[in-house]
Amino acid sequence: MIETAKHNNYTVATLLIKEANLDVAEQFKTDMLQLIDKGNSHIVVSFENVVYVDSSFLGALVSVLKYAMSKSGDIAVAQLNKDISNLFSLIRMNKVFKVYNTLPDVFA
Amino acid sequence: MFLHKNQLNTATEIRREFFFNNDSRNMYPLLNEIVSYIKIHVPSETYGRKISNCKQILIELLTNAVKHSDTSLTTITVRLLNNRIEISKSDIGRRFYLADYTGWPPLSWPLNKEYIGEKIRIYSDDISHLYAIIQNENRITFELTEIQFNELNKESVLLEHYGLLILTKLSNEFFYFYDSSTNSNLFKAVISLY
Predict the structure, then answer these.
(1) Which of A24, A53, A55 to mutate to test the interface with B (most CBs of B within 10 A)?
(2) Is the pTM of the predicted complex or chain greater than 0.90?
């Protein structure tokens, strides 16, 4: 589901799926909560392989963000395709998550 | 009639039905099939953003079918006419419901006439409020109110349900209709091309 790597001051969680939908939302949430519990408080989720996102996955992403914030962490998203970027802007998820076009040098 | 690739023929109604077996594994191929059909009639060079919205609306309607319809057949209808795209989802499965809703007015189909005009608060968080407005005994329309939102913090209230919100936000009109004569459900999203 996700592949993780350390990148300067944060962890990159690259989604290894094409379809970020209801079939994978719960597993994504479980994997991310475990990652946070292991001390990865600042995580950038890379959507470079993802072709679409549905509301179930978006709900899981917000749930993960709330958990990270409760542990003084943060979640950002990166490498969204045009359609997903359009969705984030329209429903103002770009105000909730930091959105990066490419992986940032530093996640602050 | 010959049309330039960027022109839209709005004089003739174009309509096609697609069938979905409510298996999430078939969502993506069907999504691509429907979007390809729309692109035949709506030039993506000019209407790229509208087509992107249609794609997300389709994703949410198909997701809704898998999660909530409690039946094995959904019909998606795409209709283009008069500079608008209509995307409908119909089935004979579960009627529109809100999980754990015990509020007022009650959501029991057909709705009681005395509730026409009433608003049901569906979701509410620090970013937006989503309402269902009872238009008649068989129809509700959805309305989104966006709230000024400056900074996220630990105390921020954020919902985790976005399906109806996305459908409402990306459509110019989005409603649900229960047809008691056929016991069928219809969600319709209207996207204006203006």
Answers:
(1) A55
(2) yes
CATH of the domain at A84: 3.30.750.24
pLDDT in tens, B68-113: 999 999 999 999 998 999 999 999 999 999 988 888 898 999 999 9
- Which residues of A are less than 8 Å from B28 in CB distance? 18-19, 51-52
Chain B CB contacts of A66 under 8 Å are: 158
Question: How many domains are there within chain A?
Answer: 1
B158:A60 CB<8 A: no
Q: Is residue A106 in a domain?
A: no
Q: Is residue A108 part of a domain?
A: no
Mean pLDDT in consecutive groups of 10 residues from the start of chain A, 108 residues:
95 98 98 97 97 97 96 97 95 94 91
**Residue B184 φ then ψ, to 5°:** -115, 160
A107 part of a folded domain: no
Radius of gyration of chain B (CA): 18
